[in-house]
Design brief:
By secondary structure, the chain is of the alpha/beta class. The chain is built from 5 helices and 7 strands, in the order βαβαββαββααβ. The chain has a 7-stranded mixed β-sheet with strand order 1-7-6-2-5-4-3. A hairpin with a 7-residue loop joins β3 and β4. α1 crosses α2. The protein is globular, with a radius of gyration of 17 Å. The structure holds adenosine-5'-diphosphate and magnesium ion. The site of magnesium ion has 4 residues, from α2.
Length: 184
């Protein structure tokens, strides 16, 4: 198992990372995105969709559990899943989508703190706003200064909750990913 941490400065960087990631994705793969609302899960999925060359606008899967984006380039389809309303991957299989999961890349937007995933092979990606993750972190010798920086970052993020850097933690689980070079 490998774990990688990556900083993505803005939404464009997140899309570009998704596009890079798509190069290593193939039919049958499962990508699980975890993070609170606004973390950038859909933005990252847009990049994956662009990299895979699939049809249609990748958007938040509101009102539906899963949306299928067929490939325009003879590759795997993208199945984009909103797991906020999904109990398990078995339920997803039971939906009888236009594309089988074996022939698709499945990207699941998972809510914060929801249950564990069920597939042996998977890419787990956790998206966070750094002020949330970093608030308790870099407080070593210069606790005062670090605290001020963290407060400033939090203020900036409060001013525009959609703006700013994200931290991505990428974890490749299972034999599928052994020896696969991941971007970042
Ligand atoms: N580094 C970043 N990565 C991703 N999105 C970002 C970033 N910085 C700002 N944003 C903005 O944050 C919002 C993320 O929304 P979205 O991708 O729908 O999140 P989620 O699907 O996790 O709820 C978008 O408006 C996007 O433009
Ligand atoms: Mg979303």
């Amino acid at each position: 198992m490998t774990t990688t941490q990556i900083r993505l400065a803005d939404a464009e960087a997140t899309r570009a990372f998704g596009q890079d990631l798509a190069r290593v994705l193939r039919a049958g793969d499962l990508v699980v995105l975890t993070g609170p609302l606004g973390a950038g899960k859909t933005t990252l999925t847009q990049g994956i969709g662009a990299g895979l060359g699939v049809r249609g606008q990748v958007a938040s899967p509101t009102f539906i559990i899963a949306r299928v984006h067929p490939s325009l380039v003879g590759g795997p389809a993208l199945v984009h899943v909103d797991a906020y309303r999904l109990g398990s991957l078995e339920e997803l299989d039971a939906l009888d989508l236009d594309a089988g999961l074996d022939e698709s890349v499945t990207v699941v937007e998972w809510g914060e703190g929801l249950a564990e995933v069920l597939s042996e092979d998977r890419l787990e990606i956790v998206l966070e706003r750094p002020h949330g993750a970093g608030a308790g972190d870099g407080a070593s010798g210069t606790a005062g200064a670090a605290g001020t920086d963290a407060a400033d970052a939090a203020d900036a993020a409060d001013g525009d909750p959609e703006a700013g850097e994200r931290t991505i933690t990428l974890r490749a689980v299972g034999p599928r990913w052994a020896g696969v070079a991941l971007p970042g």
